[in-house]
Specification:
The complex is a heterodimer of chains A (112) and B (118).
Chain A lengths: L3 E4 L2 E5 L4 E7 L4 E9 L6 E6 L5 E4 L2 E6 L4 E6 L8 E9 L6 E2 L3 E6 L1
Parallel strand pairs in A: 2-11
Antiparallel strand pairs in A: 1-3, 3-8, 4-5, 4-9, 6-7, 7-8, 9-10, 9-11
Chain B lengths: L4 E3 L2 E4 L5 E6 L6 E7 L6 E7 L2 E5 L7 E4 L6 E5 L8 E8 L12 E2 L3 E5 L1
Parallel strand pairs in B: 2-11
Antiparallel strand pairs in B: 1-3, 3-8, 4-5, 4-9, 5-6, 7-8, 9-10, 9-11
Classes of the chains: A mainly beta (112), B mainly beta (118).
Chain lengths: 112, 118
């Protein structure tokens, strides 16, 4: 059972464009929603995270939008750059944040 | 570099052999996690430790898998009698737990050990 559903699985965006990745979850006990960025041969690195008491969080070019009633959240990358080309994972955790449940990942390619 | 360190980075072994991986967490972190990531998938939780105590194990962690964190510092993950399906990237992460057992500190991941079974 996939507890965190992520789409699309791949995304091609032109430099300067907006990249949008969507996720949905089932478990209402989730109360922490991080996004991770992973480059080939590297481990996931935390990019930005949100808790369900806010609807939006912005850090630089990265914004998370959160819709608690719909159990959906999304990552927007503004002014996408070739250096943003990586795989992005949405994730969710609950309670003491003992374990993170990841989505399947979105491979983003930003073309010049 | 004071991040999470994993060794080896790559391991190639024949089916049926035993393998052991090591993880050194960030020094002040008291929680340590193991995940498995297969190609084209997100990491899947295997187990985690708080200090030296193993507090949760996923159903993915079959009897052939064992993890230890003997002194609450580094951890080892051993796979006995490896099978083709064990081929994956094994990721270690660590975090700091605040008082009361609730942690709002993110998990920091190492770069993983890639296991290939011939």
């Amino acid at each position: 059972q996939q507890q965190v559903k992520q789409s699309p699985q791949s995304l091609i965006v032109q430099k300067g464009g907006i990249s949008i990745i969507n996720c949905a979850y089932e478990n209402t006990a989730f109360d922490y929603f991080p996004w991770y960025q992973q480059f080939p041969g590297k481990g996931p690195a935390l990019l930005i995270a949100i808790r369900p008491d806010v609807s939006e969080k912005k850090e630089g070019r990265f914004t998370i939008s959160f819709n608690k009633s719909a159990k959906q959240f999304s990552l927007h990358i503004m002014d996408s750059q070739p250096g943003d080309s990586a795989t992005y994972f949405c994730a969710a955790a609950s309670g003491g944040y003992q374990k993170v449940t990841f989505g399947i990942g979105t491979k983003l390619q930003v073309i010049p | 570099d004071t991040g999470v360190s994993q060794d080896p980075r790559h391991k190639i072994t024949k089916r049926g052999q035993n393998v052991t991986f090591r993880c050194d967490p960030i020094s002040e972190h008291n929680r340590l996690y193991w995940y498995r990531q297969t190609l084209g998938q997100g990491p899947e939780f295997l187990t985690y430790f708080q200090n030296e105590a193993q507090l949760e194990k996923s159903r993915l962690l079959s009897d052939r898998f064992s993890a230890e964190r003997p002194k609450g510092s580094f951890s080892t993950l051993e796979i006995q009698r490896t099978e083709q399906g064990d081929s994956a990237m094994y990721l270690c992460a660590s975090s700091l737990v605040s008082g009361g057992g609730y942690s709002n500190q993110p998990q920091h991941f190492g770069d993983g050990t890639r296991l290939s079974i011939l």
